[in-house]
User: Fold these one by one.
Assistant:
Number 1:
Amino acid sequence: MKADPIGVATGSYYIDGDHACAEGAIAAGCRFLAGYPITPSTEVAERVAERFPKVGGMFIQMEDELASMAAVVGASWTGTKSMTVTSGPGFSLMMENLGLGAMMETPCVVVNVQRGGPSTGLPTLTGQADMMQARWGSHGDYEIIALSPNSPQECFDLTITAFNLSEQWRVPVLFMMDECVGHMTEKVVIPEPDEIEVLPRKYYQGDKESYRPFKFNGAADLAPMIKAGDGYFIHITGLTHDERGYPIINAEAQGKNVSHLVDKIRNNVEKISIFEEDCIDDADVVVVSYGISSRVALKAVEDARAKGIKVGTLRLVTVWPFPEGRIQQLAGKVKSFVVPEINMGQIVLEVERAAKGKAKAILVPHAGGWVHDPDDILAAIEEGAA
Amino acid sequence: MSYWRVPLDIQEIEIPHGDLHIIVERCKGCGFCEEYCPKDVLEMSTDFNRKGYHYPNILKQGACVNCNLCEMICPEFAIFCLEGEPRHPDPGEVIQGGENREG
Amino acid sequence: MSETEQEFTETLTIPPPEEDLHHPMEQYLRMERLPHIWCSTCGIGTIITAFISGLQKSELDREKVAVVSGIGCSGRAAGYLRLDSFHSTHGRAIPFATGLALGNPDLKVAVISGDGDLVAIGGNHLIHAARRNINMTIVCINNFNYAMTGGQAGPTTPLEANASTAPYGCYEFPFNLPYLAESSGAVYVARWTALHIRRLTNAIAEALLKPGFSFIEVICPCTTLYARRNRLGDGLDLMRFYHDNAIIRHGADTREVDIGFQDRIIVGKFIDKEKPTFLEKRDQYLKSKLGEQFIPYKGPNDGH
């Protein structure tokens, strides 16, 4: 399906990543945003608050992030594409109802413009330290999809992808920006509506009695949804439930329910994963990066190549689910992976796990507040090539 | 209500009547229905249902006036009242000293 | 067979199941989920009956009514009602319901949940939804403690009442819920007990038809924990207590309706006033500012 023209501000703009993300959401058909102000994500909500009344959308500033996330899950069950936007401290509060969204298999998008943590941390300066929280933040076992854009243009494009993935996989999708990308101003081209592919929600068509809101098969073939108010009298709960949505409190039901939540993503990593590779074929060293760090790393890669080191790049566009299979393949061929990230070592752990000792994983940490010095990444590349 | 003489329009007075139904196996024996029945129609059984609760028995089937209070107050959806044929009161039951004075 | 054995056998005579009997409420219940989890002499089931009766009385289209619950004994209410029903996280019933109510303005959303869920962990959401005058009806079932988790003290536990985390009695001041709701902006505020079943039914019907944020507190017997810990007998004894100690005072000043331990309970309809709902105010205001540019939100825009 093509995007609804009313929400698509076709044209060429010079805007930052936060504003581009807002435009991407509106173009994707998002018409409900519940949020709470927090630096450096506020500009997304501000733009949506201005734009929504003119495109038939509903913006509400909630009392906190707990409420924002709960409202987003509720609104999604009315059939409206819904999102919220926050940064680290608010992201922590959202974890409760992010788990609810995962358990209720509710499509929605959560934008986290990352800043330095822990706690209040660095409100106005960058970080990438919520990546493991994105994966594991809510209690219990579930799988999630998370994307990480590295430019304002991607903030637009990938927000649309995020909504499409959330509808396709009936899962909350995390849009893990960082302050640098959020506040970076660049050219953003918003295409014509008929060039924007939007995935509509899959609705059930059939008799009401036989409707089941869930299908626990761990496959891509998920149960279609219905909207509250359609007369199906659905029951949807955060408790362990069966395919009817009814609570069942025993190990067998838990096995079916949770296995499905995990398997629907794990069994389909290749369908979900998006990553970009460059000069990987003859590489001795591969720089694995995401978000703003992937752009800083380019300078180090250029310098390394100038020095004759065979270095390739693998940029994670979807960080979760992690493309474990691809890292495994490369681990047999390359000497090492270099992972620059603005945290003290998060995604590097996944790289190391997937490489299974066949290649070294070298972390280039940064505690946050600024981007890496490319020379630090270069030093790691040199170490990896040695 | 009772009167000192038989009302002249007694043939026009209709007393509503309810057919009481008790779903014994659903009852958890709280006793709300017995306690609040305005006509004292119910009495808790000395028997147990399968869950081990005493359930209400209908003591005076004909006395139910279909007020539905038992149906409303039952927390278990275990008792309900369907509208029955209204009846005309017997002269004996409306005058003072009649059998149903307490109602 | 000895005489004692014979007596015993007779006492255990099991009456035949009555499967052909259909309770009039069944069409509104998820019968496959009964029996419900609530204890014998708990009043929540009674309140559910009142809710269904109130819904019928309101003559609202039941397909356009959604129920949301939080967590706790009362939080299970949504799971037994054959309506669109959502069982959300602890304290978040109101914001979840806000999402439903704003996501589809044609829905009437009712939140049925407990005092701990709505007033303690969810207290912030309660006051803000009331302030915004979101179109929803709250049925707050107050049993004076956290029953599901074992009878701990909560925000409504009366002074001196015993609770499992107040083993020497509660020394915190409780909330006066009607006063809280009124001062936060609710347009309809009432309190009844599980005994005032017809008045509660009427109140639920009124509240469901009232545009804006309506709040009904229902005092409910908790036999297994609150009554037991405080040696008050069982739920039936509490119902008798309500009978003897509830005072109907419509229009009472909500500042004066606080509840003490085994003290009088003032019930009635306290507040019923007119105020634009969140959506009415939003649409009218944005229209005045944006004129023709303003496009009101019309519900799901999903291409279907």
Number 2:
Amino acid sequence: MQQQQRPLISVEGLSRRFGDSGQTPVFEDLWFGVDRAEFCCLIGHSGCGKTTILNVLAGLDQPTEGAVIVDNREIDGPSLDRAVIFQGHALLPWLTVMGNIAFAVTSRWPSWDRAKVRDHAAKFIELVGLTGAEGKRPAQLSGGMKQRVGIARALSIQPKMLLMDEPFSALDALTRGMLQDEVLRICAATNQTVFMITHDVDEAILLADRIVLMTNGPGAKIAEIVVNTMPRNERHRNDLHRHPQYYAIRNHLVEFLVNRSRAFDQEIAEHGYDPRRLKLVKPGLAAVNPPAEVVPLTTGRRQ
Amino acid sequence: MAAFKNSLRLRAALLSLLIFAAIVGLWQIATQPVAGSGTAAVDPEYAKLVGVAAATGSKSAMPTPADVGATLWKHLLDPFYIRGSNDKGIGIQLAYSLGRVLLGFALAALVAVPLGFLIGMSPLVYRALDPFIQVLKPVSPLAWMPLALYTIKDSAISSIFVIFICSVWPMLINTAFGVAGVRKEWLNVSRTLEVGPFRTAFKVILPAAAPTIMTGMRISVGIAWLVIVAAEMLVGGTGIGYFVWNEWNNLSIANIITAILLIGLVGLVLDQVLAWLAKLVTYPE
């Protein structure tokens, strides 16, 4: 997969161990890539080190083994090229909405004067629909609005890629849906490369082009990569469930999370496993034109 | 709800007034001159020596509330006079004390805030300095006085040094605590934005720790104001502490009570100013 041309983000042999070397690593020998302009989701149960992977990609944490190559260069720390949207929004509470975004903008372009910074920040406040709330402090905003500010802050530095750590998990369902739509719209408009961590299956199907499935930790591995064969322009939150491929993909993911993520070692024993040559599965296509041998996915449970 | 709150405030104020009246009333009864109590209680020679009133006990040295009121009024009418080195207006004395406190406090802040930053940011420095802080913190600031007088050889500067040494600890500890407690995610924001260490210190850590630092300052200024009175009693010359000691030598209890009231009021104002400053830098989360 990674012969001549590397993807924008290339994760190569990543392991992370906490504590002394005798301990089982949280995850081990991960190999995957995220292409330019791709929306990639990583899905798995809590405890499999999802956030740690994102922190390593962000440069906030160092892997025990392996490396992350971005744009053909190994990362060795945080960078303005990789913007992070944090799970708990992480806004600076003593700054206003404008202040929070301006802080990021001045970090990116230190030579800009105040007016230019404000103009630039205002553009991104408008992009996330918060015009009129520039002067408010985070404490005066609802959870959804705070996360919008987080998104605006990340986008305002015009990064090469966005890293999102369960950005919507703390929000109520209605707000979450609205924000998902907006992220979809913004990513389509800006052609942004996104790596997102989630444990929400529907969120992954709605947003992601490819979904990386992780087994349970400790010693978590990537089981396979699911290609979302539903084209982006056919994915709408309101009628996602009417799409012919939807249930096939969803069932495949749920089946993985419920059963296979626990017992993946058994699968390895039966079928073998090469972490560098992961299986690419397209459950959606099987549903549209099922080949003869394919086991109906809706029945789920394995014997 | 608002009406209830108002009425609560009103009732509290009424109760305060009542307590005040009771205290003044009791005080008045206790200090009332007892009419015709033994005129020949003491030896006439002694009476001549100490003054008739004192010797007969018809009038105690303890003033009545009215005496104190009159003394207070007299001081408030003319607080800034200077009639020789031992007779200065109470306003002047308070200004001396306040000047020393603010100077010592400012010097302490200049040392404590940067040092506290260092301690809060570096576990190494924290562990290295911790034994010194633990041993020196509980020492009464007045214990430093002889050492200060011997090394500095100037009583005015010595009292400023004592203020410095007593204000430094709460500010140091609170700054270190505030800086060490800055939320990891805010620091991560700063790291992912590639913000340099100085900009991080001033734009993220300082505002995040500011409420805790201000609390330390508020504690410090309170302690400094407590200590200045004692320090000035020791070094003498000027200041409200010296005034109190001087009036004790004059056995002018009315002046002492007046000074106590004013010390309390100035302390209250200092505390309120710091509380107001703390409110300015506090952020809701």
